[in-house]
Amino acid sequence: xxxxxxxxxxxxxxATIRTWCxxxxxxxxxxxxxxxxxxxxxxxxxxxxxxRLARKAKQAILTPEAxxxxxxxxxxxxxxxxxxxxxxxTLAGLELSHYGTGNISGATWQGELISNSQGYKLAxxxxxxxxxxxxxxxHAHMGFSESREATPREVFQSAIAxxxxxxxxx
Length: 170
Known about the structure:
Elements: H1 3-10, H2 14-23, E1 28-31, E2 34-37, H3 39-58, H4 64-69, E3 72-77, E4 80-85, H5 88-92, E5 94-98, E6 104-109, E7 112-114, H6 116-123, E8 126-132, E9 137-142, H7 152-169
Antiparallel strand pairs: 1-2, 3-4, 4-8, 5-6, 6-7, 8-9
C-alpha cells in the first residue's frame, strides 16, 4: 500500500509513515521515489502503538504528590486529607481572557469560541473541586449557574478528565 493509505489506516500523518519507513519501523521498499508499505508490518506497528498508549493510560495514578504537581493544593486537618484545584477550569478546557477591569474579554470551551457570558457561567458552575485522598474520589460544590454549552455535571466530568490527562502526562 502507499503512504496515504497507510497513514489513513494508522491514523497518523503521511510524514509519520515516511519516517517509519526510513527508520525501519515498518517493512517498506522505495521504488522510483515512492514507498510501498507491507500491510502486515503496518498492522503490527499499529498494534505496538495501541499497547504503548494503553500502558501510558494505566500510569495515571492519582497520588497527592502527582495532583499537587499539576497545580493542586493539599489540605490536611484531622482525618481529612484533600487536594483542592483552583485551576480546574483550565484543566476542564475553559480558557478565559480578561480586560484590565476584570471583565471577560474572550472565552473558549474545549477549543471552540463561546460568548463571554457563557464563559462566565461555565466558570461559576463549579465553586470548589477537590480530590479526597482518604476515599480516592473527586468531589465538588456546584456553583450557581448553568451554561448552554455544558451542564455543571459535564463541566465536572471534563475537569476530572483534564486532571487525569495532566497526571498521565507527568
